[in-house]
Amino acid sequence: MKEIIKQDTEVRVLLVGGFGHAVCVFDEWLQEAAAVRLVGAVQTLPEESLDGFLAHPWCTQFKPSIYHDIEEALRLEQPDLVVVSTRPDLNSDLIELSLRAGSHVIVEKPIAVNASDLLRLQQVVKETGRWILPMLGLTDSLAFVAARELMQQGAIGEPLLVNVRKSYQWGKRAEWFKQPKTYGGIWGWVGISAFRIAEYVTGRHLIQILAAQESNGAHPEYAPGCPDALTGLFLLQGAVQMTASIDLLRPDGQPDWADDWIRVVGTQGSLEALPGHGTIRLIRPGQDEELRSVSTVAPLLYTPFLKAVTAGADFYDLTQQGFQLTDAALSASRASIEGHYGMEVDPGRWNFSNLHV
Fold it and tell me: pTM of this prediction?
């Protein structure tokens, strides 16, 4: 499909849904005074109000039309960009409709809740030439940004072992969290961030699930759809071993207990990154242990994506990464539920070489 480049600089945005991390996108656009305009909003579920999102300071600048049918909204508003942030099982259909209408998409993770939908979306991207950016922005976690820079500089040599922790509050969970078909599981919603952190810092993708498990010890009324504790043993590219610990057990009302963390052991030392403390701990042979306060400037994520519309920019890498990370999370979920060991994962299958410039 021939790329149509928008001639003016203002990007027309359609919001779809009222759940998830769309506010992170709005925060960045507001901070950067991005040339975007909210032209419409679609309520995807009767019980999922748009009020929370529309009360965001970025949204209150506009008077968007309200819809209950995405196809009608796409036809009437002709948005350049669609922000999908709703119940996970709805993502794949909403993304396809948006791509086929000619819009690029920013979407809450995971992109899909099953392998067949993910394969379908891969084909749609190839057919339409439109990009998908999942809401996996960890670039505001400055310690991870600094850790990535140190790895790229070779500060601890080649990575050998990675440990990742990711923690959420339990909070208030809707009824659909109880159903695997509607929620898709914790690996897709939270665990995907563990793979994102590891990939972001080390540049290595998941290639094998050695073992994975999940349980619900504190919220059994939400089983089986919403486990509250998960662990896994994985292999990343280059035979790098990785462990992951995921939970939804952070006390409610406590915004951060500094438990999002990555540790990388390399051939020439180790580093630990703790965004909650804003620190990097660096240990290298023959040198004193260093505890560095982070001063790195985080790169933007959602604002540069606007160039997909205004300048026909190539977002091949981020789209492919979104598919790779979703596949990793879905595979880990399947391994946990079905008891698989040694499951192979091929990050190379999610390529869009026919579109890459």
Answer: 0.93
